[in-house]
Amino acid sequence: MVQSRGMKIQKRILIAGNWKMNPTSVKDAKSLFHNISKGISKKIKYVDVVVAAPYPYLSVLKNKKMVLGAQHVHHEKSGRHTGEVSVGMLKSLDVKYVIIGHSERRAAGETNEHIEKSFIAAVNGGLKAILCIGERKRDSKGNHFNFVEDQFKNAFKKFPKNLLGRVVIAYEPVWAISCGDAKGKTATPADVEEMKLFIQKLLVDSFGRNTIKKVPIIYGGSANSNNAEALLIDGKIDGFLAGGASLRPKEFISMINIAQHYADTHTS
Ligand code: PGA
């Protein structure tokens, strides 16, 4: 996520789009992908753009300005797992990222055990894993920190420290996701910065001090071009996992431009 530029460390931002179960046809998927790619300026240097599309579209989307992501992967290499897709299958389509443990999959029954296994299988197989963690609700007692800590510890129980460079953590409070209970709410930059520091402390406690720079922490939950700048500057976040905004090319491109401007003017 970081690279050297003289004495300074160049900031890089990750903008990942989670298309979820959209759009509804391969024709529309190609057109959405094309409209995003044509709007990405050649000047974009320090922003990594990922599109996590539904499985059937991954074999038809190709572009040098963006890389592909999947929204889930199974931990086994092959076998009797109807409806599942393996790391090897994704890699054969040049997929580079996979979302792990998204709250919508957790709500549909994905367990901590499944998440831990697919998380490790993904990084072992050479994919970058975007691990989603985030509380369902907040209360004044701060129980959301316990909730996030629990999800973190379950996912990282047996995680190989040498593969932390393939991990991105997406802090996605479920209450802020645009189709969640409270539509349209976004975490404030202060909420996000506080949770980023908390997650970094969990990383340090589990893996040691110098792991912080290896693991970008991004934010998801109604992220868009109106809140992106404040979340980058004041929330000190390393990028976004955007759902709704990634289906609107102008909006998504605008987030990429904001991220580039931010990366241009900041060091890590
Ligand atoms: P949203 O979705 O940006 O539409 O809130 C984010 C996500 O679920 O990853």
Write up what this structure looks like.
There is one protein chain. It contains 8 helices and 10 strands. It has helices spanning 26-39, 87-92, 103-107, 112-124, 143-156, 189-207, 228-233, 249-265; strands spanning 3-5, 8-10, 13-18, 47-52, 67-70, 95-100, 128-133, 167-171, 217-219, 239-242. The protein has an 8-stranded parallel beta sheet. A two-stranded antiparallel sheet has the order 1-2. Helix 1 links the parallel strand 3 and strand 4 (47-52). The longest helix has 19 residues, at 189-207. Residues 18, 172, 177-178, 220-223, 241-245 line the site of 2-phosphoglycolic acid.
Sheet with the most strands, sense and barrel status: 8 strands, parallel
Shape: globular
The proportion of residues in beta strands is 15-25%
Distance between the termini: 10 Å
Number of helical segments with 4 or more residues:
8
Overall helicity:
25-40%
The SSE order reads EEEHEEHEHHEHEHEHEH
- Ligand identities: 2-phosphoglycolic acid
> Average pLDDT, to the nearest integer?
93
What is the CA-atom radius of gyration, in angstroms? Answer: 17 Å
Number of strands: 10
State the strand order across the main sheet. Answer: 9-8-7-6-5-4-3-10
The computed structural class is: alpha/beta
Provide the low-confidence segments as ranges.
Answer: 1-5
